[in-house]
Specification:
This protein is mostly helical and 211 residues long. Helix content is 42%, strand content 5%. It is elongated and about 60 Å long.
Length: 211
């Protein structure tokens, strides 16, 4: 069964990929810490050479499946996970991601804009890449949030827009935030009404993966 009514693209990809490994053949009630450690060792030895941080996704998402199974009266437990984690970290079989410290340099922004505008000039291009790039910088929104913005949620008088279901690791549902549109973000939104692909519902009516 699905671990939730709506799961992210990364989580779904990882869970589907896990079906290809031997660990998926083990009955839930018989899964042990040793099984998990052997899986992580096998993953790190693959030709693709995934990083410990990548393998950690396998561990975390598998645990979410076991936790969900318990609520469905399936004989499953997450005890194997709690037992294995300290050793997995100690042996560097998994790793937690570091905070990102890379920031754009001032001279890099014009170079990116130039490349994006060149892409926009392609005869098959429909996406205003440079506008979306600038809007993401000014609003600090994710691409998935930008492409879900609705005209009906725009408050032009106060220059505020409602971002629905914003991603938050501590709260999975109902994260609606009002975000002030500053530094030219409001003007970029209004500019979309002049776009050839103007949509009456969504402000940026494009697929995140295409962007």
């Amino acid at each position: 069964p699905r671990t939730a009514s709506k799961i992210g693209r990364t989580k779904e990809y990882v869970l589907r990929a896990l079906l290809k490994y031997d660990i998926s053949l083990i009955t839930a009630s018989r899964l042990t810490a040793l099984d998990l450690m052997e899986h992580c060792e096998f993953r790190l030895a693959e030709d693709t050479r995934p990083k410990p941080q990548t393998v950690y996704h396998d561990v975390t998402y598998l645990c979410s499946v076991m936790a969900k199974a318990k609520t469905l009266k399936i004989n499953a437990s997450t005890a194997y996970h709690d037992e294995a984690i300290p050793d997995l970290l100690d042996q560097n079989l998994i790793g937690r991601s570091n905070k990102r410290t890379r920031r754009l340099k001032s001279h890099e922004i014009p170079l990116i804009e130039e490349a994006l505008k060149e892409r926009e000039n392609h005869r098959t291009a429909k996406i205003p890449y440079s506008d979306i790039f600038q809007f993401s910088l000014k609003s600090a929104m994710r691409i998935g949030e930008i492409t879900e913005l609705l005209w009906e949620d725009l408050d032009p008088e106060n220059r505020i827009i409602l971002v629905r279901s914003r991603k938050d690791p501590r709260k999975k549902e109902g994260n609606d935030h009002e975000v002030p549109l500053v530094g030219g973000a409001f003007e970029l939104i209004l500019k979309q009404k002049e776009n050839a692909n103007y949509d009456e519902e969504k402000i940026f009516p494009y697929e995140p993966r295409s962007i």
